[in-house]
From TrEMBL:
GO cellular component assignments: cytosol
NCBIfam families: glmS (TIGR01135), PRK00331.1 (NF001484)
Function: Catalyzes the first step in hexosamine metabolism, converting fructose-6P into glucosamine-6P using glutamine as a nitrogen source.
EC numbers: 2.6.1.16
PROSITE patterns on file: GATASE_TYPE_2, SIS
Name the record gives this protein: Glutamine--fructose-6-phosphate aminotransferase [isomerizing]
Cross-referenced InterPro entries: GATase_2_dom, GFAT, GFAT_N, GlmS/AgaS_SIS, GlmS/FrlB_SIS, Ntn_hydrolases_N, SIS_dom, SIS_dom_sf
Length: 610
């Protein structure tokens, strides 16, 4: 979603801001803008609809000198993508604002500001922040005070940076519900919605907390908490590598991230499993105490992360002997639900900032869940900071909007959780050792599975002119089928649905004809024979099938069925292994269709608004 970059330095900052925006492109956006001011209070603002490159092109013809500036990529919520709606927004000729999030009471504020004579030039909610700051600045001693008074009137979510061109030596930033980091340099400071944007200029970051407001100058960063008290926030060294945002030899980030999975899994398991045991410290120092008391697990997530939760439900109930519910965050947060005794509340999130998941966590705490745990890929993110325990995924930066390596790494983390909770609920040491052994095999198995890419690229040709597809699986694989369908629809725009194969005859069988490709995931497990019967049901109705099957599952290609051999693997890790061919299929179909693979239309990477 929207991205923010800001800088206060002695050197000119336009190029730093532009590079920051480029590094945030992955989040999804539809327009971009920049404002830079020099020591003589000369400010230039440029805004463009479309890609950051369009902004870069106009910047080539326009000098932007100045050491203080703000920049933004906008993902439209209020008002269409247009130059007038792009940030930075301005008021009174001197206040400039960039903002992520949604101001829910903007209509009321807009009306009262209009009555005070402020003229609105956009349809955005953000413009009220600019006018309110300008209004409050008239009767405040400082920009900081004006911003403090402004945010006290805002309802909703914001990460915002405010520049007053009459005070070019400072920026004021405020965070509530939308993340912001401060980057510390030598005699210069930076702000951004994501540290990735600032890695070319600094590796030292402090994460603002909810309600924080900070005044940032070249030489100082002063942070105030929601009560207005001066506070200090710990400065961390970035764990991400500088080139986390590079595609390397790959054509798309998504392909790079698909191929990174063996290494990402190696990393996530490192030091967390021994030869035969799972290390309880993988979930933090208090994990042994917390996990030993768990009788029920409630998992909350969105999208792909939700699918990881659905797989984990099978594992937790089968292996760990605890009941488990899995729910989409946006549903959970708006309904009255029952809290089982001794429940562990688990959020799964790549970004750690998904608005609905975060709101669900906050609700869970009010509801009295015993313990909260997050499986998350971004250290310092809101979910990590607000949960009792955190499993850091170590997947590395995921740039492609379609989640790939985060999903398989989440599954590894969830398997470790299963083994640990199981340890306190009758899972034997032999069972735990078998689980660990299967995990040790995983990186190698994924390498082998990735070699299916060549065949899948050819297969993808057959999908390019399809309008619909059906994905089928049984058991945990029904969730993998859902993930396969989500991947195909989000990047190739082909309508895809997934069903637990046993549900076929309860409705979806009516869709089957020679034009409906049916993709089946068929590992060699105890449900294989049942799945084969479902395959026959499709065949009998003239369906066209593509079966990703265990090499030992005895499927054979014929006129109505293409079988693609998946390397034989332990049934335990099969959900992770079978994810790979489905990711590759959607990737190659999207490439053939010529869609924007890494930034599919209408979607954003980190969904920080509900
Ligand atoms: C799909 C995808 C999304 C995310 C969802 C949750 O490929 O990426 O469905 O999984 O928006 O995001 P996180 O995991 O960051 O909470």
């Amino acid at each position: 979603m929207c991205g923010i970059v800001g800088a206060v330095a002695q050197r000119d900052v336009a190029d730093i801001l532009l590079e920051g925006l480029r590094r945030l492109e992955y989040r999804g956006y539809d327009s971009a803008g920049i404002a830079v001011v020099d020591g003589d209070q000369q400010l230039v603002r440029l805004r463009q609809v479309g890609k950051v490159q369009a902004l870069a092109d106009v910047m080539k013809n326009q000098l932007l000198p100045g050491g203080t500036g703000i920049a933004h990529t906008r993902w439209a919520t209020h008002g269409e993508p247009s130059e007038a709606n792009a940030h930075p927004h301005a008021s009174s000729g001197h206040i400039y604002v960039v903002h992520n999030g949604i101001i829910e009471n903007y209509q009321i504020l807009r009306e009262s500001l209009r009555e005070r004579g402020y003229l609105f030039t956009s349809e955005t909610d953000t413009e009220v922040i600019a006018h309110l700051v300008a209004f409050e600045r008239e009767s405040s001693d400082s920009l900081l005070e004006a911003v403090q008074r402004t945010v006290a009137q805002l309802e909703g979510a914001y990460g915002t940076v405010i520049l007053d061109k009459r005070e070019p030596e400072r920026l004021v930033v405020a965070r509530s519900g939308s993340p912001l980091v401060i980057g510390y340099g030598l005699g210069e400071h930076f702000v951004a919605s994501d540290q990735l944007a600032l890695l070319p200029v600094t590796r030292r970051f402090a994460f603002l907390e909810e309600g924080d407001i900070a005044e940032v100058t070249r030489f100082s960063v002063q942070i105030y908490d929601k009560t207005g008290a001066a506070v200090s926030r710990e400065i961390h060294d970035a764990e991400m590598s500088f080139d986390a945002g590079d595609k390397g030899e790959y054509r798309h980030y998504m392909l790079k991230e698909i191929h990174e999975q063996p290494a990402a899994i190696q990393r996530t398991l490192e030091g967390r499993i021994s030869q035969e045991r799972i290390e309880v410290t993988a979930f933090g120092p208090q994990a042994a105490e917390f996990l030993s008391q768990i009788e029920h697990v409630q998992i909350i997530a969105c999208g792909t992360s939700y699918h990881a939760g659905l797989v984990a439900r099978y594992w937790l109930e089968q292996w760990a002997g605890v009941s488990c519910n899995v729910e989409i965050a946006s549903e959970f947060r708006y309904r009255k639900s029952y809290v089982h005794p001794n429940s562990l509340f688990v959020t799964i999130s790549q970004s750690g900032e998904t608005a609905d998941t975060l709101a669900a966590l906050r609700l869970a705490k009010e509801m009295g869940y015993k313990t909260t745990l997050t499986l998350c890929n971004v250290s310092g993110s809101s979910l990590v900071r607000e949960s009792d325990m955190a499993y850091m995924m170590r997947a590395g930066a995921e740039i492609g909007v379609a989640s790939t390596k985060a999903f398989t790494v989440q599954l590894c983390g969830l398997m470790l959780l299963t083994g640990l909770i199981g340890r306190y609920n009758g899972m034997t040491t032999e069972q735990e050792a078998a689980m660990v052994d299967a995990l040790h095999q995983l990186p190698n198995k994924l390498e082998q599975t990735l070699s299916m890419a060549v065949d899948i690229e050819t297969l993808a040709e057959e999908f390019a002119d399809r309008h619909h597809a059906l994905f089928l699986g049984r058991g945990e694989q029904s969730a993998i089928a859902m993930e396969g369908a989500l991947k195909l629809k989000e990047i190739s725009y082909i309508h895809a649905e997934a069903y637990a194969a046993g549900e076929l005859k309860h409705g979806p069988l009516a869709l089957i004809d020679a034009h409906m490709p049916v993709i089946v995931v068929a590992p060699n497990n105890e449900l294989l024979e049942k799945l084969k019967s479902n395959v026959e049901e499709v065949r009998a109705r003239g369906g066209l099938m593509y079966v990703f099957a265990d090499s030992q599952a005895a499927f054979a290609s014929d006129a109505t069925m293409r079988v693609l051999d998946v390397p034989h693997c332990d049934a335990l890790i099969a959900p992770i292994v079978y994810t790979i061919p489905l990711q590759l299929l959607s990737y190659y179909v999207a490439v053939i269709k010529g869609t924007d693979v890494d930034q599919p239309r209408n979607l954003a990477k980190s969904v920080t608004v509900e």
